């Protein structure tokens, strides 16, 4: 299902004059930040639908010719910035006509309401009147009452593009039982228990420097060796990250280089869906704390495979 935003026109996309009719170019003024905001919303996967009441459109006092000229010009400006509307819905009636298509009635949006194509949890109505808010209620979705000073386009867009990307993965095998809860945006209680103290530390550093919130609880067959535990943690963490990232809207694809005292490490990654892992690090000792150093490479290979990323890790320094 898709995310839709049903947007009022006069007073929301463009300024509404005192006589309520925008029938010539000289009356056309865009609301502040509307173009940059709609561009951002499109990048985050929202589909835009224009829905407007145009009282008496087609009557002697409000000709279709004059309306269409301004409407076409407005849409051309939006299109020049890559902003296209999936549909344009217009009710031409007066309130006294008691028609079924005038907002807040849902006749114009019946297709989206009844065909199970709309993600109701993440679809909205944006408008400057109470009828727009009532339309949203009638559709079973949420709304924003637009006001350039109190609830601006910039503010609305920030709300709609602040994500809550999270995932829960439970992986259970004959050798391990792993529970991972992850959130990329909103705080959760951080907890890391793998049974390997230095791996706990390594994962906690990943959490701190990435800004990711992690809850990891692991029971593994460490009495035999650490292979299954480390491999399965890499697989489960990769799956959790992949799930939380979702469609990857609004994020950068690539990684970083970290200088630290006498060492230099580089982690370069591409969230491409193509799987590869190159790991070039030489360890002097077999163990770093209680972590078997030869398993570190295997951890990142498992992570890259389950997360479906291209990952390059290089490190050097004094031994």
UniProtKB/TrEMBL annotation:
Q: Which keywords has UniProt assigned to this entry?
A: Amino-acid biosynthesis, Cytoplasm, Histidine biosynthesis, Hydrolase, Lyase, Magnesium, Metal-binding, Multifunctional enzyme, Zinc
Q: Which GO terms describe its cellular component?
A: cytoplasm
Fetch the SUPFAM superfamilies from UniProt: HAD-like (SSF56784), Ribosomal protein S5 domain 2-like (SSF54211)
Renumbered to this chain, the signal peptide range is none
Any transmembrane segments, and where? none
Give the UniProt record's GO annotations in the biological process aspect: L-histidine biosynthetic process
Picking any one GO molecular function of the record gives:
histidinol-phosphatase activity
The pathway to which it is assigned is: Amino-acid biosynthesis; L-histidine biosynthesis; L-histidine from 5-phospho-alpha-D-ribose 1-diphosphate: step 6/9
Query: Among its keywords, does the record have Nucleus?
Result: no
> Which InterPro entries does this entry report, sorted A to Z?
HAD-like_sf, HAD-SF_hydro_IIIA, HAD_sf, HisB_N, Histidinol-phos, IGPD_sf, ImidazoleglycerolP_deHydtase, ImidazoleglycerP_deHydtase_CS
Keyword presence, Zinc:
yes
Name this polypeptide is given: Imidazole glycerol-phosphate dehydratase
């Amino acid at each position: 299902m898709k995310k839709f935003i049903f947007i009022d026109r006069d007073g929301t996309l463009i300024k509404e004059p005192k006589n309520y009719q925008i029938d010539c170019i000289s009356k056309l003024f865009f609301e502040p930040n509307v173009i940059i905001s709609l561009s951002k919303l499109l990048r985050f996967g929202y589909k835009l639908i224009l829905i407007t009441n145009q009282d008496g459109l087609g009557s002697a006092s409000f000709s279709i010719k004059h309306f269409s000229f301004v409407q076409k010009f407005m849409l051309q400006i939006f299109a020049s910035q890559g902003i296209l509307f999936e549909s344009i819905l217009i009710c031409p009636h007066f309130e006294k006509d008691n028609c079924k298509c005038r907002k807040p009635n849902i006749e114009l949006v019946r297709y989206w309401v009844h065909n199970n194509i709309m993600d109701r949890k993440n679809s909205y109505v944006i408008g400057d009147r109470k009828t727009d808010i009532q339309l949203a209620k009638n559709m079973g979705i949420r709304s924003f009452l637009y006001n350039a000073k109190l609830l601006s386009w910039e503010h609305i867009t920030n709300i709609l593009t602040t994500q809550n990307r999270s995932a829960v993965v439970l992986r259970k095998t004959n050798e391990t039982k792993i529970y991972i809860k992850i959130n990329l945006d909103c705080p959760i209680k951080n907890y890391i228990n793998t049974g390997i103290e230095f791996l706990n530390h390594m994962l906690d550093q990943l959490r701190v420097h990435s800004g990711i919130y992690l809850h990891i609880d692991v029971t593994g067959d460490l009495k035999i060796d650490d292979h299954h535990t480390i491999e399965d943690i890499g697989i489960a963490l990769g799956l959790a990250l992949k799930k939380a990232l979702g469609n990857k809207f609004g994020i950068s694809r690539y990684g970083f280089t970290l200088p630290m005292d006498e060492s230099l490490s580089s982690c370069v990654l591409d969230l491409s869906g193509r799987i590869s892992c190159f790991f070039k690090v030489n360890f002097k000792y077999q163990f770093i704390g209680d972590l078997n150093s030869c398993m570190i490479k295997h951890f990142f290979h498992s992570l890259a495979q389950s997360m479906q990323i291209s990952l390059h890790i290089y490190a050097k320094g004094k031994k």
